[in-house]
Every structure is written in C-alpha cells, then in structure tokens.
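Appendix B. Raw example, untouched.
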Amino acid sequence: MDYDALFQAQLDALKHEGNYRVFAELERACGAFPRARSYEGAQQSDVTVWCSNDYLGMGQHPDVLAAMTTAIAACGAGAGGTRNISGNTHHHRLLEREIADLHGKDEALIFTSGYVSNWAALGTLGARLPGAVILSDALNHASMIEGIRHSRADKVIWRHNDPEDLDRKLAAIEPGRPKIVAFESVYSMDGDICPMAEIVEVAELHGAMTYLDEVHAVGLYGPRGGGISEREGLAKRITLIEGTLGKAYGVMGGYVAGSAALCDFIRSFSSGFIFTTALPPAIAAGACAAIRHLKGSDTERQRQRRQVARLRAALDRLGIPHLRNPSHIVPVMIKDPVKCRQIADILMQDFGIYVQPINYPTVPKGTERLRFTPSPMHSDAEVDRLAEALGTLWRRCALARAVA
C-alpha cells in the first residue's frame, strides 16, 4: 500500500479548500521585539510581527533573560528526567509557589505546556471522580476538549458564555454526581470575555466545581496579572485556575492552581504529569522572573491597551471590519480562506508585516480572519503603518468596508 499517496491526497484536499497552512521561517531579534528576520528561500528580510502571543514582549525582557542565563550557567540545560524520578528541581518549586501566590491558591503544579495542563488536569478529574459530568462551554479550546474526551466522563456542552443555559444543564443532572464546569476567561479567536461572576454563581448554586482556563488573560489583566478572575475579585471562588507561561509571560509551560489536595491529586494520578520530562530549570527561572515583574509593573499592560485602542480607532477610520470585544485581541474578518492567505502573503511580501491567517479548523468555515495582537513594543508608527497597509489591500482586493 502506498501510504504516502494516502497522506498526499488529504494534503491536496486541504490545499484545494484553502486551509493548508504554510509556516513562515522567522528569527526573532533579541531586544528588538516585535521585529524579526524572515527567511524565504535564499532571501532574507526584516519584518514586524503582529500575531505573537508573547503579548507583552516578556520573552525579550532583561529580567527574564538574566534569570535564564543565570540558571543555565548554574544548572545546565535540561531537568534530567521526569519530576517523579530525577527532574524535580528547586526552580520548579519556586515557580509553583510564585504561581500559587499569583492566584491566591494553596498550591500550583506546572506542566510542559498549557495544552498538556488542560489535557492532563481535565482528563484526570473526569476519569477519577466517580460519576463525574463535565459541562463544557461550546467554544472551549481543543486542549480542553481533548482532556474531556480522554477522561471518558459524561460531557454536556452549554451555549457559549450563556449562564442561563448552564443553569438548565446543571439542573438536569441527577443529584450527587460530581460536576465540573469548564470555561475560559478570554476566548482567543473572537477575543470575547466570559460573564465570570454569573457562571460562578450558577456553578455554586448547583454544587459544581469550576475549572477556569486563563491562558489568554494571565499577565494581562488584574492588578498583578492574575487574569480576569483577579480583576473581578473571583479567584478565591474558582476551584481550579489553569494558565500558561508561553503567552504573556514569554517563555513556555502550563500550570494549574488550586487547593493543596487538588494539586496533589493531579500530581499523583495524571499520566500527563507523571511520565513527562520536566521543564528545563532555566525555563522555570525565566517564567518566575516574568511573573514577579508583572506582579509589580502595570506599565506593559497600560501601554498594550493604548496600542490596541489606537489600532482599533485606525481600523474604524478606514472602515476595516474587526470584531468588537473588550480584550487585547483584534480579529480582522476576511471570511474567505483563499483571500485570507493571499492578504497575509501580500502583507509579508510588500509591507514587511507578518500575520498568520486563521482558518478552519481553528475557526469555523466562513469566519476566516487575520488576528492581530498589538503589544506595548509596537510603536505608534508601526500601528499606523499596519492600518494603512490594510486600507491599501482593501482597495486592491475590493473587499467590503465596515458600515459605521
């Protein structure tokens, strides 16, 4: 059997649909974020990155770089193994204490990525709580969906950001069964923010535990960067808070924070934790430095909000359609996978602006978009240049303008 032919047939179908993804080859310039060098065959050029999840540029921050350099000089490159056998380092415990303090929880547990932390935690909770039912927001991230599927627990999907539908779904579950309400604070593709207080109140009314994904909010919201739950004063009422170290904190890794018993339960039973090589100590040290810095500094958050507002205002002046939301994410709607790819390519080739098209299966078909994430490091001139480039392409491609 020609297996490569089977692979190629499905790849060709993906290309025909306009959903095949092409990765740009980039090299971030240390100390010059959001600028990077693009490698296109034999050609090299400088570009401005507009779609990074390093939302605050902490991957370039001097405190983070110094902490990582010091740690690698002291400890070497890797952790040496899984934390159960040979990889439980002092830097891991310092990071977990920093995270627990960030969210006002007893404990925290770190993983190699936010995807793994969701998959492992939800998978373990659903599998080991007898008769558990997991109630999942309709737009939850793929990692949460995979964790729920892995758990083999009963799953109930409630309408996106709809506490009334959640209330009805919880009321229909027979009494005495463990119930886990899983939802996100900031949804990364539309940039909308959940009605957290209402969701928590409904969950408490029905005796359900709350599982909150804050990956697109930690570092960015709240007085110390604890996320929407900190901003709204709700962190203590959330059973488990899951987050990432790979976005606003600029490095990599994921975590959960909660009670001592909850974190110990996941540590002791989750295969996604037990059998995975631990994060390198230098990564843990860098994450620790980023969290500490953003606990005490609001400068980056305020500057980012200013640049987000500036971009939105410029898009409005030009009639460029973008989703309205209260977050830092600016989705510019194209609604066609081929045009989305073409516009992204022209922005890169003609304007030195790098943004990846977002298409199916990340978003539903017909909602393809360019997802811009202004950072505190983007200058006013760079914001204005992006808006002007989009205005030029809207004329060139005869795309519909937003109606004021």
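End of appendix B.
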